[in-house]
Specification:
This protein is of the alpha/beta class. Helix content is about 55%, strand content about 10%.
């Protein structure tokens, strides 16, 4: 279940077991906070939470679940980074996982080819724990946290899915940033005008890694310092101007337009502002690679917003790249990638200077 649907669901009903899993920690942290806020609306009793990490003995966990709380209204257990939901890596483990067991549950082979039963103690512990999770006491809540995708074939995953809720905290990219942006704007009672939205999508597309925590904080600042309902491009520029990757996208736009004078001016400004050549080279390489990929896709008849899916970009950005790519030819882009690789080596070994960056920009604008 995606973050938005998950947050709506827990407002209607709060089950007793959760699995918050995925690479986007922002979603996991916010979902956990929302669950705890509903469990402890007065804000108290959180000091009594039971927190565990890694592999946990099944009987011990069952014992904690069945322990009646004395000094707090609810018994809440948070277990982070448990291997119970992880995909098996070895062939024998995969066989055990397909059967619904865990790594330790795979049956051992005997010399005569027969198989003896899996470790009975481990098996029984796992079965007891699964049965407990399927019907938790009214006073107990169990929250599993993990920073990766769970194996949906495993019995533990299926048990939690049936008895509770699973959050799929997928990482946010430029093409699906609206999944975060629209709910955020609704909570702020704000919206973006067209130019502000286009700027925001462009800015996010330039970020190597999108930090939702950072974006969340910056939008909160906008809400505090602006009384108007509509957020303008000017306000967004003021917020993102200090992010190197974002401030460089004007340079990439100038290169896409083959405006040599503007491109060189922006390049000199970036260098004067102290932007490292490695940042410039990485973003140049990324931009040129995307233009080349677009050229290849266009040769296959894929154009406009249809470029978004194969490129993993927002449709607006993909369509814009498609128009820019038509100004270049394949040989020019291939040569630029080679020049970027050569410049990277020369700059890192002290055999070249900023003139190498200027050469790349001039050749791309030719």
């Amino acid at each position: 279940m995606k973050f938005g649907d998950f947050m709506v669901r827990i407002k209607k009903e709060l089950p007793h077991v959760f699995l918050l899993a995925g690479e986007e920690r922002y979603y996991i942290d916010h979902a956990l906070e929302a669950i705890l806020t509903q469990l402890f609306p007065d804000g108290g009793a959180r000091d009594g939470l039971t927190k565990l990490t890694g592999a946990v003995d099944g009987d011990k966990l069952v014992g904690l679940i069945e322990t009646v709380p004395f000094f707090q209204p609810k018994n809440v257990i948070i277990i982070e980074d448990t291997p119970l939901f992880r995909a098996a890596k070895k062939p024998a483990d995969e066989e055990a996982a397909d059967a619904g067991g865990d790594v330790d549950d795979a049956p051992d082979a005997l010399p005569d080819g027969k198989r003896k039963s899996a470790k009975p103690t481990a098996d029984k512990k796992l079965e007891r724990l699964q049965a407990e999770l399927a019907a938790l006491p009214d006073f107990s809540y169990v929250i599993f946290l993990m920073g990766e995708k769970p194996d949906k074939r495993k019995k533990f995953t299926k048990t939690v899915e049936k008895a509770g809720l699973i959050l799929e905290a997928e990482p946010v990219r430029a093409w699906n940033i609206n999944d975060w942006l629209q709910p955020k704007l609704q909570r702020m009672n704000k919206d973006l005008d067209r130019s502000a939205y286009e700027y925001f999508v462009n800015a996010v597309s330039m970020m190597q890694e999108i930090s939702l925590s950072y974006l969340d904080q910056e939008f909160d600042k906008l809400a505090l310092f602006s009384n108007a309902r509509r957020i303008t491009k000017k306000e967004l520029v003021a917020v993102f101007a200090g992010v190197p990757e974002v401030s460089i996208f004007a340079l990439m736009d100038a290169i896409s337009e083959k405006d040599a004078k503007k491109s060189l001016t922006l390049l000199m400004r970036q260098l004067a502002d102290g932007t490292y050549f490695t940042v410039l080279l990485v973003l140049l390489a990324r931009h040129v690679r995307q233009l080349y990929q677009v050229r290849l896709l266009q040769a296959q008849g894929i154009r406009g917003k249809a470029l978004a899916k194969p490129l993993g970009l927002h449709p607006f950005i993909a369509e814009k790249l498609g128009k820019s790519a038509m100004r270049f030819d394949d040989a020019q882009l291939r040569r630029a990638l080679i020049d970027i690789a050569d410049a990277d080596y020369a700059l890192k070994t002290g055999r070249g200077g900023n003139e190498l960056l200027e050469h790349i920009v001039i050749e791309l604008c030719a």
